[in-house]
Structures are given as C-alpha cells and as structure tokens.
Amino acid sequence: MSGEASRKSKVKNDIIFIAVLLALIVAVGAVYVSTRQEGDTVTVTVGGELYGEYPLSQDRTVEIKNGEALNLLIIEGGKASVEHASCPDGVCAAHRPISRDGESIICLPNEVVVTVRKKNADAPDIIV
Amino acid sequence: MNKRQKKTRKIAFLGLFTAVAMLLSYVEAISPVLVTAIPGIKMGLPNVAVIFVLYRFGAPEAALVSAVRVIVVSLLFGNPAAFIYSIAGAMLSLAVMVLLKKMDFLSCVGVSVAGGVFHNLGQILVAMVLLGAAEVGYYMVALAISGTVSGILIGLCGALMIKKLPLYRL
After folding, report:
1. DSSP H helices in A36-94
2. What pTM value is reported for the model?
3. Best residue in B135, B150, B152, B162 to probe A by mutation, most A CBs within 10 Å?
C-alpha cells in the first residue's frame, strides 16, 4: 500500500489542486464582474418560457403568476428586485436589487427567472 | 469466513452506511448551524459516508449507498424537483470522485473537494435545463467556493474515519 512518502506527496497534490481550483473560480468570477455593464431591460421567464419584458427605467410592480405560485417583481430607481414570493424559502425576495446586464434573481420553487438585459448593446446578439 | 458470510457482512455494512448517510442528510437539514442563508450551499455531510464506502468497499458500493440515500431521503423529506437536483449532483460528484481516486494522485481530501464542486455543478446543470436559463451558471462561482471549503472539511472527516475505523471492512 501507499507509504509515508506517497501520502505526503498526495497531500501536496491536494494543496496544489485546491489552490488551482480556487484561482480558477476567482478568475471566472473576476471576469464576470468586470465585464458586465448596466442593463436596461428586465426579462421574466417562467418555466423557461418568456413571461414579459419591462424597461428598467420605468418604475412598476409586476405580479408573476405560475398557477398558485406568485412572485412580486418591483422595478424602482433603475433596479429590479423581487418583493414577495409564495415559495417557503424566500431566497429571491432576500436577493439584493439587480441592475447589471446578465444579473438575475432566480426562484427555483416557482421556476421564475428575472434577468436584467442590455437590449441596445453594441455587442453582437449572437456569435456563430 | 466463507463466501456467504462475507456477502452477508457486506450487505450489513452497506445498509449501516446508507443509514448513516441518511441520518447525516437529516442532521444537515435540521441543524440551524448548517442551514445557511443561501440555499444550495450545504456542507454535504452525507458525503462523509459515501467517501468512506468508496475507499473501503469500492465504486459500485459507493454508488449504491449514495443513490439509495438520495432516493429514500427524497421520498421521506423532499419533493420530485429536489430529487432531480439531488440525484444529478450526487451521481456526477461520485463519478468524478471515482475517476480521481483511480488516477491516484490526490488524497481523499482532494477527491472530496472535487466531489463537492461537481455536486454543485451537477445541480446547476439541472437548473439550467429545467429553467432554460444559462444565467443560473453565474451562481456557480459562489457554489464552487462553498463546495471547495466544505469539500476540505468533509474530506478531512472522511480521512479520519478511514484511519480510525479499521473494523468496517470486508
């Protein structure tokens, strides 16, 4: 079986592996944070299907219904947040307001995804 | 011990560790310390039992314990949606752990870290498919960090168990 030496080298490999993994995660996170821009449109999908699109510049309250499930989307001062949710965990309601392109608030139990988009972006819509 | 006794012993041990894994799921679900502000972030306590079985008995046995744990726990406390997330995470995580253990360059702590991260990845992939939204992927950054940290803790627990419990073997 593995002796003391190979055990030690494995611990060393562990540390390298964990360090590389963390560096990779931080790099991905940093790229994501540094590249996103302020968005202008809020897109709501329920169960993968488009429910509605709303401009971020206009204050409003939207009821998102999915059968019995209900989420309240609040757009205020250029930021979108979810105020009330019928789900038990209330994660989406606890989420901070979002305003940047690609940011989203997700309610897993109600299958609701609220995403901020930049519609009139100068970047291409699709890269083939 | 004859062949039949060995088989009986193995069945008993696997049953025992499946029960341990289920109990750890339950402890994780009810313990206020372990229920974090962000759902989806979990310690992954049941993985202690899965790692132990993986190292002591092997990959098929670990897969069995893990799968039975997920199915029974989902039946008892969960719902169908939670089951899909759990099973996808558990199986992807186990596949990666089996592979890394075979490659034999990491200790069980490194293997456990990979298991933790891929458990989250499996769940994120399911969320992407079910919600039809690639945006969920961004959540992966937070989950990967938590998976790494809890993977280290779980791996250390697993290593301790493997060292201190010499009796539970074939």
Report:
1. 91-94
2. 0.75
3. B135
